[in-house]
Design goal:
alpha/beta; Uracil-DNA Glycosylase, subunit E; 6-stranded mixed β-sheet; 9 helices
Length: 211
């Protein structure tokens, strides 16, 4: 995504005015654009064979919070944007319910290419793609990472866990606070967890924006 396209997306997401500080936002956009160019031609794992396009991420590069999911789904693969399907709509709803907008945050995934039939990425696929995410985190430099689901947890901490055990916990990764909650796709299959998920998203946002 080039700078022009980024500004267009930001406008569509609701920004009435975009002020670019050449020392911060503009530089971040350029660095993220470099990663995006790399992932579009990446062949480090077999997931590239069936992708329509790789999905880098979306949102405010200066946000204090970064939501991290698993991998693109069918709609994300088509549109080149993260969390735009049903799960993404639920995440957006939860963010708005907490009093924020989607363009207040940054959203990405562990893997940048869609796994076949939306299966869980393998450990090898995650490790091949993780350097891209690590660079994103370094560029955006959020104070809080909100991990959506066990696969995102595994990608960051390099170990397995039951999300019911870690949900709601505040952990630490590379000097940043980490809030763990369900993946919205799981919540769609278990609607009784929706209130808990909404509360978790609110707490993660409050942690980041210090309200």
């Amino acid at each position: 995504m080039n700078l022009k396209d980024f500004l267009t997306v930001m406008k569509e997401l609701g920004f009435d005015e975009i002020i670019i500080d050449n020392n911060t936002l503009n530089q971040k956009v350029k660095l993220l654009e470099e990663i995006n160019k790399e992932i579009q031609v990446c062949t480090k794992c077999d997931l590239h064979k069936n992708r329509t396009q790789a999905v880098l991420g979306e949102g405010n590069p200066n946000s204090p919070i970064m939501f991290i999911g698993e991998a693109p789904g069918e709609e994300e693969d088509k549109q080149g944007r993260p969390f735009v399907g049903r799960a993404g709509q639920l995440l957006t709803k939860a963010i708005e319910s907490a009093g924020y907008k989607r363009n207040d945050v940054y959203i990405a995934n562990i893997n940048k290419c869609r796994p076949p039939n939306n299966r869980t990425p393998t450990i090898e696929e995650q490790e091949a793609c993780f350097p891209y995410l690590k660079r994103q985190i370094e560029i955006i430099n959020p104070s809080v990472l909100c991990l959506l689901g066990a696969t995102a947890y595994r990608g960051i901490f390099k170990k397995e866990t039951k999300i019911t055990k870690e949900r709601g916990n505040v952990l630490e990764y590379d000097g940043k606070k980490v809030y763990v909650t369900y993946h919205p796709a799981y919540v769609l299959r278990n609607l009784k967890e929706e209130p808990t998920f909404f509360e978790d998203i609110k707490k993660a946002l409050e942690l980041a924006f210090k309200k």
